[in-house]
């Protein structure tokens, strides 16, 4: 289906989504009140109504082809497996063991720096920034009770570390979305992304040591942990880095987690099945949202809207570096509007790939830029889920701006990404 080349009207569904979601969120002063899937459904209806001269059957076909894109189908399968792995890990106590392990190895003399590193470790293992914040923010509150005045910097350490893993973890929604939309291997993206994130993390750690020292007598009291329950997360990381396909990695990770749970007597067969189902169910909304976004992109492409955007952007972009800056700017703008980095990548990803292909940008770089910029913006949004979860754990005793002053890692991640784009270095050839 092709309505017209250079059609701005074809962008109307996306515009309607942004207006419905953003306007409602601002009106209610709550970016998580309006169900994002409902907003997308409204925009999809608009997408089918515009261009009445186009046969409805052609619109349905374009929508279905977009929703059924092989990349989207694979992404949804990975989301479901990642959810199953996370659900089973929660059921066998692997999540709590991982948290307690990280806290147990935090040096009391460098408590806040250690809290940041623990948050990095937990988020890298679990692949969820919000889950990491929920698990560790109460620890920052406890530190503040012993050392008054450290609440804001403690929550900043937790949120910053959470964004580290959200950006790099092999089972993070953002990593999955970034690699699938760009069509690159997770391991290859990790290699590029790691050298963007590492300097930011190291400098952040030094900053927390410098400004966040507390008395050595102030110590956290973590619970017990079992090393064997941490193995599945280590296996997933190593398996993905060695080049094993992510589907195999997650399936084997699920089997390993289940075996550990059976061996330790934490779960039986029915409990394992229930945990797997609950984990996959947690991914249902995201999976359906992927389908709707894919369908909308298919409609907009058929309407000529994608060509319209590309022509306007291409007029401003002359080099590969310009293409990377364009991808970064689009990602930042959309994420600021949506306050959801995964959905941002799903929306911007297809357009980013087209820009990358047209201007000679290595897809490993475009995938990394999508992920790092979205995590940078998401991490510093005062209305983002991560900051809000941290404030909720502290019973809103401080304002979002107090926490934002100590979000050293997200700011440095954004700066590191800009330096990565500015001082471009050609990567070794990579064949998909």
Architecture overview:
This protein is mostly helical and 432 residues long. The protein has one domain. Helix content is 75%, strand content 0%. It has 21 helices and no strands. The model has no long low-confidence stretch (mean pLDDT 86).
Assembly state: single chain
Tally of helical segments? 21
Main sheet?
none
Q: What series of H and E elements makes up the topology?
A: HHHHHHHHHHHHHHHHHHHHH
- How far is the first residue's CA from the last residue's CA? 29 Å
Number of discrete domains: 1
State which percent range the strand residues make up. Answer: under 5%
Average pLDDT level? 86
* Strand tally: 0
The helix content, as a percent range, equals over 70%
**Gyration radius over CA:** 22 Å
What best-fitting shape do the alpha-carbon axes yield? globular
SS-derived structural category: mainly alpha
The low-confidence parts are none
Question: Which key phrases capture this entry?
Answer:
single chain; 432 residues; mainly alpha; 21 helices; 75% helix; 0% strand
